[in-house]
Structures are given as structure tokens and as C-alpha cells.
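Let us practice reading a record.
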Amino acid sequence: MRNLLILIIVLGGGFILVGMYIAPNQPPLRAWYLANACPTLDKVSPEICAPIRKAERTGADKT
């Protein structure tokens, strides 16, 4: 049971970190996060999706 809880915490943390650091530089992933994940993540903290929105506004395409 403890291992399952740790796995869920690690996956959740990884999901947030991908949204903050990787998604802003990947246009398809950035679009998915904006459409699907950011409405829910904004309830936790608006700072999680801030880099994605900033990259979307500036049109950053570093691929």
C-alpha cells in the first residue's frame, strides 16, 4: 500500500514538472496541457501553467 501511495505521488509530481519545464517548449504538448490539464492545475496553483501560457503568448517554438 505504501508503494502505491509513493507511486501516485511521484506520478503527480512528474505530471506537474512536465507541465512547468517541458511542455512550454513542445507545441503539441503545450496545446494539450492548455486544453486539458491547466483548468484543473489552476485550481491547485496558477503558477503551474504560467510558463505554458507565457510560451503560448510569445509563440515560443524551440523544437
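A brief commentary: The two ends are 40 Å apart (CA to CA).
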